[in-house]
Here is the input.
Amino acid sequence: LSIRRQRQMCIRDRSQHLGETGMLSREAGDEFLILSKGHSSQEALDEYVRKLIEAVNQTNMVSEQGAALLSVDVGVAICTEDITSADELIDRADMALFKAKAAQGAELVYFDEELQAEQRYRFTLEQSIRQGLDNQEFVAVYQPIFSVEGECIVGFEALARCLLYTSDAAD
Here is the structure.
């Protein structure tokens, strides 16, 4: 069987672990959404998700090139009363998934307000950098690189400084 066909069969087989209230859909590429309800507590949800992770991690796929082990990173968002749309819930799950993928060895990350604040900070920083580039607010500053052995300058390192945040920008 091809890897693609094996992956499809794996997804079908693993979807049996969702239970009666779970629904699986493909978001994009190798990202999937699982909608699940009726968990009595955070611990019950955690156990549910960990069982799904274990089911995927125990899967081995074999092709002509050899065996391929599957692994999974999971971002979880819990629907609360302050969520006004499905898109907002999915965005929160995406933020948690992004953090799970970025963390070394992490398989499961829950969305929380700190994660949202971190995301908002990153967005604001990116926007500030883009605006600074558009307004030519960055200057190159050259820092010498010294050789300890030869006690001389062997090169320079170029640093980008934003004029708005540099104390000596008025010079």
The first helix runs from residue 3 to 14. The chain has four helices and eight strands. The first strand starts at residue 23 and ends at 28. The CA atoms of residues 83 and 89 lie 7 Å apart.
